[in-house]
Automatic annotation (TrEMBL):
Source species taxonomy: Eukaryota, Fungi, Dikarya, Ascomycota, Pezizomycotina
Domain DEAD-box RNA helicase Q: 47-75
Intervals of motif Q motif: 47-75
Domain Helicase ATP-binding: 78-255
Species assigned in the record: Lasiosphaeris hirsuta
Protein name as catalogued: RNA helicase
Annotated SMART domains: DEXDc, HELICc
EC number assigned by the record: 3.6.4.13
UniProt GO BP: gene expression; ribosome biogenesis
CC terms in the record's Gene Ontology section: cytosol; nucleus
Length: 618
């Protein structure tokens, strides 16, 4: 019989082990059964954290985080997890899934420790990337702020030797956060013991197998004791979840919390621009030099070279940005995300290499079938030996705080990947904007220097994205930038592009890697000793010392601007995203039109896009 959280002594009762796979409203009925007394006291739809049954120290910690009330996924998952049920939960990006599993898990450990203070690793949280492991670890630290003596956590994703790892684990952390491969390695080489494990969490569960962790997962599953309570969290459903469910869960409760946003409540505005390959660079230059998007921005590009190229291109115009890619050391990556979240930088250029793991959705089914039927040895290797960190990922799960906009400079190759990329903005009830560049078929390959293979099928991918977003009652709208107004800037864009040669990109890439490897280790030691001085080194400094510098490009002369002038552009820019949880209704928020000053179209308010001759399609 499977032992579950809160049921360690009592025999597991059959009703809770009955498979419960039902829509959200049906699951409400189960809550009513489980907690009838609470039901009478408090209206069901809005329980507070304290009413979810969590340890008071956690309620205190949550209040310190200024979480006023639990999100939907927290309201649903926490009571189930506290009851000891296996939970398979699908909820949208940025909906607060981390707290939904971390809080009940800590609460359960505290409850057990109140009667049995022995130390053992009671919880293993597996995540697909090292960045995410760091984020979850930090969340545990925050939530256990008022019980830090009772809860020890460790993350296994640092680059440390087995000896160091072993000594870390000899402290017997209650909670271990890791990627599957590091966890399996530590079980074998660094003394991680799962003998008494109570809880297993798979965060971003649909991604775990695509990252090539299948073998590690199987191995780990064999070492687990019987009766481990499993919680799986995901933003999308996939066949992989079924596989994992069959390996790790027994009779899980399925929470499919597909919150369909009413148009009034939608916080994310989505736009796309159809343009030629070189126009992408021109529009990006205009958007960022003229600050048409205000606030912090995450730009996704298809590969590492492209990210350096865009950074060097921006440098030509004195636009500062920093880079995230799988080549950079983990310490650097974590620091870049930390500093971005602290507000030190405005622009991150991330190469979303993992977008490829979702496959090219435009590849025909016949091809994929043929591929599947091939012997295993002919299958593409999931874990290639490259210098890249296979455990890297920024489009999944990473919580970029107060991100105003996601720009898909290169469209991803799948709608799933798009969903996760745009999920980095408009998180936790905030507003956000997503802007994607789409290369029409007839313009593909027309500008060789900037052409990119993965953009050949942009239109097909866009069709899938539109369909996928429509299922969530979301729209993605077309923006037309005025060719005439842009032309004045074209020669500058061409000048800058010419300066960013392949050699310059290669040099910048090697140089940064070398520098980061060096400072990553130095920094690690330095910041361990001086944790308050995180701004010591900035990551958005210039890379292009070997690129031709063109001083004239750094400024925008007034004569290049539309006749309404720069002031008109900079006072009310495209994509200004207010960060307050503004009441959309009061401000006349309409479907597909972002709320906020700058997007009020027509009427007395001025449309900044019109001042720049940028118009929505009629
Ligand atoms: N109850 C709450 N009230 C306010 N903010 C919250 C609450 N719960 C979580 N948050 C905040 O919401 C943000 C998103 O949370 P989290 O990263 O857990 O989302 P997620 O659902 O795991 O997203 P993803 O699917 O992208 O991984 C975080 O900044 C977190 O601090």
């Amino acid at each position: 019989m499977k032992r579950k959280l809160g049921q360690s002594e009592a025999p597991a009762s059959t009703p809770t082990e009955t498979p419960v796979t039902k829509p959200e409203h049906a699951e409400e009925a189960k809550f009513e059964q489980a907690e009838p007394k609470q039901e009478k006291k408090q209206p069901k739809q809005d329980p507070s954290f304290a009413e979810l049954g969590l340890d008071p120290r956690l309620v205190q910690a949550v209040a310190k985080q200024s979480f006023e009330k639990p999100t939907l996924v927290q309201r649903k998952a926490i009571p189930l997890a506290l009851q000891g049920q296996d939970v398979l939960c699908k909820a949208k990006t940025g909906s607060g899934k981390t707290a939904a599993y971390v809080l009940p898990l800590i609460s359960g450990i505290l409850k057990r420790k109140s009667t049995d203070p022995t130390s053992f690793t009671a919880a293993l949280i597996l995540v697909p990337t090292r960045e995410l492991a760091d984020q979850v670890f930090k969340a545990i630290e925050l939530f256990s702020a008022f019980c830090s003596k009772d809860i020890q956590a460790a993350k296994l994703t640092e680059n440390v030797s087995d000896v160091v790892q072993r000594s870390l684990l000899s402290n017997v952390p209650d909670i271990v956060v890791s990627t599957p491969s590091r966890a399996w390695h530590s079980i074998n080489a660094a003394g991680l013991s799962l003998e008494k494990l109570h809880y297993l969490v798979l965060d971003e569960a649909d991604l775990v197998l695509s990252y090539g962790y299948d073998e590690d997962m199987e191995n780990i599953s064999r070492t687990l004791p019987k009766g481990v309570q499993t919680i799986m969290m995901s933003a999308t459903l996939s066949a992989e979840l079924d596989t994992l469910k069959s390996i790790f869960c027994r009779n899980p409760t399925l929470l499919d919390l597909n919150e369909k946003m009413g148009a009034e409540d939608e916080k994310l505005s989505q736009f796309y621009v159809k343009c030629g390959e070189d126009d992408k660079w021109l529009i990006a230059y205009l958007i960022f030099k003229l600050r048409l998007i205000k606030g912090k921005c995450l730009i996704f590009v298809a590969d590492i070279d492209r990210s350096y190229r865009l950074k060097l291109f921006f440098e030509q115009f004195s636009i500062r940005s920093c880079i995230l890619n799988s080549e950079l050391p983990i310490n650097t990556r974590i620091k870049v995300i930390d500093e971005f979240n602290k507000g030190l930088y405005d622009i991150i250029i991330a190469s979303d290499e993992k977008s490829e793991i979702f496959g090219d959705e435009t590849a025909d089914e016949e091809t994929s079938k043929k591929q599947k039927d091939k012997p295993e040895s002919d299958q593409p290797k999931k874990k290639r030996k490259t210098q890249k960190d296979q455990e890297y990922g920024v489009s999944r799960g990473i919580d970029f705080r107060n991100l105003a906009a996601v720009v898909n400079f290169d469209l991803p190759t799948s709608a799933t990947s798009y969903q996760h990329r745009i999920g980095r903005t408009a998180r936790a009830g905030r507003t956000g904007m997503a802007l994607s560049f789409v290369i029409p078929k007839e313009l593909y390959g027309k500008h060789k220097p900037t052409s990119l293979r993965s953009c050949e099928n942009d239109e097909k991918i866009l069709a899938k994205i539109v369909k996928q977003q429509a299922k969530q009652e979301r729209t993605i709208e077309l923006y037309n930038f005025s060719k005439k107004e842009m032309e004045a800037f074209r020669y500058r864009m061409n000048d800058a592009l010419r300066a960013v040669t392949k050699v310059a990109v290669r040099e910048a890439r090697t140089k940064e890697l070398r520098q980061e490897l060096l400072r990553s280790e130095t920094l690690k030691r330095y910041f361990e000793e001086n944790p308050a001085e995180l701004s010591h080194l900035r990551h958005d400094g210039e890379l292009g010392r070997s690129t031709r510098t063109q001083a004239h490009l750094k400024h925008v002369p007034d004569y290049l601007l539309p006749k309404e002038g720069k002031k008109a552009l900079s006072s009310q820019e495209i994509g200004f995203v207010p960060f307050k949880n503004a009441d959309a209704k009061k401000r006349g928020h309409k479907r597909g039109k972002p709320s906020g000053r700058s997007f009020k179209v027509g009427g007395k308010k001025r449309d900044p896009l019109k001042t720049f001759k940028v118009r929505r399609k009629p």
